[in-house]
Amino acid sequence: MKAVKPPRMSICVVRHVLATLVCAASLGSVTGNACRAGEYNPTLSIGDAAPLWKPLPSADRKQFGSKDFAESKVLLVAFTCETCPYATDYVKRLTAFSEQAANKKWPVAIIAVNSNATPRDQIDAMKRREPAYPFPYLKDESGELGKAFGATRTPEFFVINAERKVVYMGAFDDSTDPEKVTQSYVADAVAAALKGESPEVTETVPIGCNIRYPRRRRPRD
């Protein structure tokens, strides 16, 4: 197993500087590990139990929690949003992958999560998105789920195996230019997880916009 190194070490340093702040957050409706940073993730390491979450509202006016995907052998959790050009560029790739998985009848559940606190990323904007995602698109209003995963970018992807452990986290593939992709990290990780194996590449640096989590006001004395 290996992790792909970032182009600049400063990115990695920033991830770890953020770790203390993320670990200090209260995760009331989310169950996960004590903070244990990965190589590029400020919270999770490969092999950690994936965070569980209570039902969150979706763009199709339903609610989904982690228990709703118990029948799926593999989970793919994608942190995305409505306002980041990187995230919107990857919509077609993620949708194409979901269609491929459905056609091959893979026992894979794909869940998109929006943890961004910007006005244009609220649930009403998600409900108006066209075309709609062919998989659940959840609004993480408090930001607790994103913080539990240690997600810092949109898009950012996590592949979770049958034992509900994280086997891959990071970028979808190795190029933001679809014509230059030579390795599809997410597809490879899902294929490996379906076989009960670990992917060759387990962690990469997510490329995209910073997630803007809700700010918490300090209590007055």
Task: Write a brief caption for the model.
The protein has six helices and 13 strands. It is α/β, with parallel strands linked by helices and 221 residues long.
CATH architecture: 3-Layer(aba) Sandwich
- Round the Cα radius of gyration to an integer and report it: 16 Å
Oligomeric description of these chains: single chain
**Annotated CATH homologous superfamily:** Glutaredoxin
Share of residues in strands: 15-25%
Poorly predicted segments = 6-28
Calculate the mean pLDDT score and round it.
87
Major sheet characteristics: 5 strands, mixed
Say what the CATH topology is: Glutaredoxin
**Count of separate structural domains:** 1
Strands side by side in the biggest sheet? 8-7-6-10-11
Q: Which structural class do you get from the secondary structure elements?
A: alpha/beta
Helix content: 10-25%
Give a verbal description of the structure.
With 221 residues, this protein is an alpha/beta fold. It has a single domain, classed as Glutaredoxin (3-Layer(aba) Sandwich). It has 6 helices and 13 strands. The strands form 5 sheets. A 5-stranded mixed β-sheet has the order 8-7-6-10-11, covered by helices on one side. Strand 10 (156-160) and strand 11 form a beta hairpin. The longest helix has 16 residues, at 9-24. It starts with a strand and ends in an 11-residue tail after the last strand. The model is unreliable at 6-28 (pLDDT under 50). One of its GO terms (molecular function) is oxidoreductase activity. This is Redoxin. Pfam families: Redoxin (PF08534).
